[in-house]
Amino acid sequence: SERNKGGDRVHNKRTKRRLPQCIIIGVRKAGTRALLQFLDLHPAIAAQKQEMHFFDDDEHYARGLAWYRKRMPRTRPEQVTIEKTPAYFVESAVPERVRDMDRSTKLLLILRDPIERAISDYVQIHSTKSAMGKYHESFDELVIDPDTGQVDADYRPIERSVYHKHLSRWLEYFSLSQLHIVNGENLIRDPVAELRKVETFLGLDHRISAESFYYNKTKGFYCMRLQRRQKCLSPSKGRRHPDISPTTMKVLREFFRPLNSKLYDMIGVNFGWN
Ligand code: A3P
After folding, report:
1. How much is the pLDDT for 42?
2. Active-site residue 29, yes or no?
3. What is the ipTM of this complex?
4. Whose CB among 24, 165, 214, 250 lies 3.0–4.6 Å from 108's, allowing a Cys bridge?
């Protein structure tokens, strides 16, 4: 027996663990946790909350699909199993491996202004325990090559923001129709509207409604209204960003402008960044 979302015991012989039919592939720091938690409000969605790192970690992958499937939640046949591992988007072995599991897998990718995402990535890197208390270089110092005054494109937070490059690898194995791109800025401003598009993409009824959310002024973000309590994302989501010098911002905007255009051409959507 197991419990449903309301906490009642349910005995249902038709529940079993299934491979995910939908994967949130990334991108790191664009709102992947919010997307997964919010989608899990839908009765026909069952989320694996832990990042599985199945397709990007060779040791995990070597354990095979049966190992992966056993780590998924039990579901009824009409439910969609979802997992999210943001590293999938940028790790080059992953698209082919997901295709080999099931070529009809639905892919969710959440994107956010690449500069904001890079800053968030920098903040994340320097907030880990090992970095705590240590002197660390400013974002400006890390992002601009002092010799050339240009953006260091190999700096990981920048490299991970070059969306078109990573996406083109996925499009070698999946068609655009199997991919839905969630607008990270919209998910912050108006989660219900952005989630409706995902429900449509997954072929599900619109069941996530405004009643499930309230704006938390202290946090500065929408939080969830659950049956018995309210739930915000953890304090590590929605961190303060450092101030960036105007010169660095200008160099970054020039660096990303043509890259953003390439992405817009690739997907046929203009996010209006820059
Ligand atoms: P910041 O901490 O830079 O603001 P991920 O889950 O992929 O690591 O993404 C983290 C980002 O999710 C946060 O980045 C924040 O902007 C965004 N986010 C979107 N909706 C949110 C929400 N309702 N509560 C908190 N953070 C949210």
Report:
1. 98
2. yes
3. 0.99
4. 24
CA–CA distance, 138 with 152 (Å, rounded to integer): 14
Taking the centre of ligand 1 as the mean of its atom positions, its distance from the CA of residue 184, in whole angstroms, is 9
Query: 187 in ligand 1 pocket by Cβ < 6 Å?
Result: yes
Question: Are 149 and 270 within 8 A, CB to CB?
Answer: no
Structure tokens at 174: 């999946």
pTM of the model: 0.94
> Looking at 29, 84, 106, 165, which residue is catalytic?
29
Which residues, other chains included, contact 153 with Cβ-Cβ below 8 Å and sequence gap of 6+?
Answer: 159, 162, 255
Distance (Å, whole) CA 211 – CA 221: 15
Q: Report the greatest alpha carbon distance in the chain.
A: 66
Length of the chain equals: 274
pLDDT tens-digit readout, 154-203: 999 999 999 999 999 999 999 999 999 999 999 999 999 999 999 999 99
Residue found under tokens 């946090």: 219
Tens digit of each residue's pLDDT (9 = 90 or more) over 94-132:
999 999 999 999 999 999 999 999 999 999 999 876 666
**Does 17 belong to an annotated binding site?**
no
Query: CA–CA separation, 272 vs 105, rounded Å?
Result: 29
Give pLDDT, residue 119: 98
